[in-house]
Structure formats: structure tokens, C-alpha cells
């Protein structure tokens, strides 16, 4: 068993989860030990199976109260939690149990374009409509509020008025896949 064991929480397709899993697949000290989802239909679950990584799903009540999620994290000896397209606010008991050990990636530059309901295409559409000439990603620690934890890294990319929401999403996703695994590695090993 490697000394650092990650649980990736994801609600959707899992492209960031796959990038993270592949990055750490042969790492000497860090491994992805569990994929956790609040969506039984999430594509990330099929990808976890293909990668040979155990996965679990849970209800809102189970997540807020602990239960099976907490038990699975303890059984797998999880040391760090990675949010990768996870849409629910992390309950305070997890933040207390994993102080400064939960990280998130946001598909825009915080503090602008963050908060409850700001995810996926909504973020990119808001950025596009703002007239900003750049967007990017923010990787940050998780606290009790959406997108308000201490930033660890921000990376920007230019956008033009002719970029569609899909164009912006593709640029941001490229940054996510390039920078999230490396940032996780340096954060875990620091």
C-alpha cells in the first residue's frame, strides 16, 4: 500500500478523474484508491471499472450524515480527497476529518464566476457574456463554502469574442488535464 491514497469525488463523465488516475497509475508514493460519486449514472463509474479502481455511489442523506461514504474512506485508508467535477458542498465533518486535505478544481478564475450553481457550461457562458479576454482554472483547498478555499494555482488562457461556450470549455478542459494531476502531486507531497 502506498503512503498517500486518494479518493476522487465526481458527479459526471470523469475526464479529470481519468487524467488523475492515469497520471498516478505508476507513481511510487501516490495512488487513486477509490472513486466516489453522487450519481449512479455518472460516466466516471464506468471509467473507474475500466481502470480497475473501486467505486461507490451514495445518496444526499448518506453524504451529509457520513455513513457509507465515511466508512469507505476509512476502510480504504484515504489520506486526501480530490473533487473532480463534484457538484455538492462537502459536509463539515469531512472538512474536519481531512483538514487541508481536500482539493477542488474550478473551471474559471476565482473569485469571479464561482459559487453555488457555477459549474459546467453555466460558468463558461457567464465568462463569455462578461466580455473578459481570458479565463482559466483555479485549483483550491476546500472549506465550508463553494469555491472560497485558499487558491493553490490559477492558470489562464485567452478567449476571443468569437469563441463559443464549447470552445471555451475545450480550452479550460485542456488546462485542467495538464495542471490538475501535477498540482495534486505537489500538494500531496508538500
Sheet having the most strands = 7 strands, mixed
Order of helices and strands: EHEHEHHEHEHEEH
Tell me the CATH topology: Rossmann fold
Approximately how much beta-strand content do the residues carry?
A: 15-25%
Identify the strand order in the major beta sheet.
Answer: 3-2-1-4-5-6-7
What is the residue-mean pLDDT, rounded to a whole number? 97
Structural class: alpha/beta
| Count of beta strands | 7
CATH class identity: Alpha Beta
List the helices and strands and how they pair.
Layout: E1 4-9, H1 15-24, E2 30-37, H2 43-51, E3 55-57, H3 60-65, H4 67-75, E4 80-83, H5 92-97, E5 102-106, H6 120-130, E6 134-141, E7 151-158, H7 165-189
Outline the structure in words.
The protein has helices spanning 15-24, 43-51, 60-65, 67-75, 92-97, 120-130, 165-189; strands at residues 4-9, 30-37, 55-57, 80-83, 102-106, 134-141, 151-158. It is an alpha/beta fold and 190 residues long. A seven-stranded mixed β-sheet has the order 3-2-1-4-5-6-7, with helices on both faces.
What key phrases describe this protein's structure?
alpha/beta, Rossmann fold, seven-stranded mixed sheet, 7 helices
How would you summarize this macromolecular structure in one to three sentences?
This protein is an alpha/beta fold. Helix content is 40%, strand content 22%. It is built from seven helices and seven strands, in the order βαβαβααβαβαββα.
